[in-house]
Amino acid sequence: MDVSDLVARARDGQPRAVARLISMVENGSPLLREITARLCAGRPYRARVIGLTGSPGVGKSTSTGMLVRAFRERGRKVGVLAVDPSSPFTGGALLGDRVRMQDHATDPGVFIRSMASRGHLGGLSWAAPQALRVLDAAGCEVILVETVGVGQAEVEIASLADTTVVLLAPGMGDGVQVAKAGILEIADVFVVNKADRDGAQAVIRELRTMTALVERVWRPPIVPTVAYRGEGAAEVVGALDEHLAHLERSGELGRRRHARARDEIEAIALTALRSRFAHLHGDQRLDALATRVLDADLDPYRAADELLAALG
Amino acid sequence: MDVSDLVARARDGQPRAVARLISMVENGSPLLREITARLCAGRPYRARVIGLTGSPGVGKSTSTGMLVRAFRERGRKVGVLAVDPSSPFTGGALLGDRVRMQDHATDPGVFIRSMASRGHLGGLSWAAPQALRVLDAAGCEVILVETVGVGQAEVEIASLADTTVVLLAPGMGDGVQVAKAGILEIADVFVVNKADRDGAQAVIRELRTMTALVERVWRPPIVPTVAYRGEGAAEVVGALDEHLAHLERSGELGRRRHARARDEIEAIALTALRSRFAHLHGDQRLDALATRVLDADLDPYRAADELLAALG
């Protein structure tokens, strides 16, 4: 099937075409350029992107499932992109979580895809924008991007999403951990899941204290949930809608999306340059430079100069 | 003080010179190039790098402290680089953990520095090699790099370290989480901390099952510890030494360090290209391209072409 057919079918909402395009994007298909061109042609991107992140064990997948249900009840077409740092090695373990998503497996208004974040230059930043574009083309009005972890992945998700939800749960480590993970800065909405368990109130109190210390126009609301029972779904959706309204009022939505487009262009340009490196030098040239650096015959800056010199 | 003085003092083991150089490296000092050149001049890098990673709450800092003590008892000069995803915003919370490190604060054979992993292009990959070089120049024979988190940060630490230690602890989430974090692939040694708590045996059993499934020349040993009491320190050091011996025997040590040098050269070259972008185009050009992409007037690949065209 050629790309224009595939894109037409994805626009028509055919799940297999959507799945295939996302796989092509993820695997860095040589057709990526053409796919992107066709996805973009004459049709501005529209879908709202909500990032969900948190440590392993807080109930991200269950919460994502709850939100899918809530948005479906409100008549929205929903995409889910689960970005997982698992390697091919451990990818199988994912299934345990994805099982809960099978509630939605037969709903034509829901597209669910897992993507690995490893092995690609720049992690998420490289393939995810194209995957969002595929889901947008398929008519998704809301896209939930779920990612594990603290640190880099969280920062990346925040730069991809219009609204970033940070999930916490009681019993995941003491209070200092919340601060340590550096999440205050990226959270637009806090969800404290497993709110029926001991310690949930303490987590909420601590978050309240912390968010009160931060001077920002938008103070992230803190929403308790019990995701496996669907408790708190309406409140989370309410908080998300309020944040979207805030983004629109303040002009921040446009700024975030503009910054995202900049990042994407730059990432593509850098990837192109990187492959130009590979062509110019092959592995041997860089190998030889690395050996000289290890032998203290050359410092890495001068080695980089030599690498760049051939680019002109 | 000029760079050659500062490097001379660092080589002499003066902590303030070491601290100052690492700060300069971390902040992307304009003198970075000269610093690196002087650090590299005529002296191959020697220090052994051990990465420690794991989720928040497993006891990374305590374990790092235990290993510092163990290596000091064996007469080694030790460097610690704590790479934290915290932002300036939340950086203060770090102090809670670092307190335990103060045992070593007055030992001239130990250098401890925290680095933020945010805000730099490529995270760890950019500044950490230079920071390792500073610690190596100061005579550190062992450098412990401690990092929070799962996902990208872990992959990065594995590419920096000769040996990667993955820390786990009971009660941090169910078994599937171990697989999910994608850690099997990067772990050279597993340490199960808090081994005196309920559930430690289950974590060890699960790890055993998982590592048995993997076909690799080196099967990661699993070492139980109770870090705050120093229990298991000798066993961890033993496992680390065995792994180092394996790396040397198999030639893998040379390969890892060569790959690291390649990565470093490439990262510097890409950073240079990126700043060349900034010079050529300024923000305005990229802004205009981003706007056109948002308006669906241009796809991001063609925008990247335009950005690159001016580079020639």
Automatic annotation (TrEMBL), chains A, B:
CDD domains: MMAA-like (cd03114)
Keyword Transcription: no
SUPFAM superfamilies, A to Z: P-loop containing nucleoside triphosphate hydrolases (SSF52540)
Annotated protein name in UniProt: Methylmalonyl Co-A mutase-associated GTPase MeaB
Example GO molecular function: GTPase activity
Family per similarity comment: Belongs to the SIMIBI class G3E GTPase family. ArgK/MeaB subfamily.
Keyword Membrane: no
Pfam families, sorted: MeaB
Native source organism of the sequence: Streptosporangium minutum
PANTHER family named among the record's database cross-references: LAO_AO TRANSPORT SYSTEM ATPASE (PTHR43087:SF1), LYSINE/ARGININE/ORNITHINE TRANSPORT SYSTEM KINASE (PTHR43087)
InterPro entries according to UniProt: GTPase/Isobutyryl-CoA_mutase, GTPase_ArgK, P-loop_NTPase
Sorted UniProt keywords: Chaperone, GTP-binding, Hydrolase, Nucleotide-binding
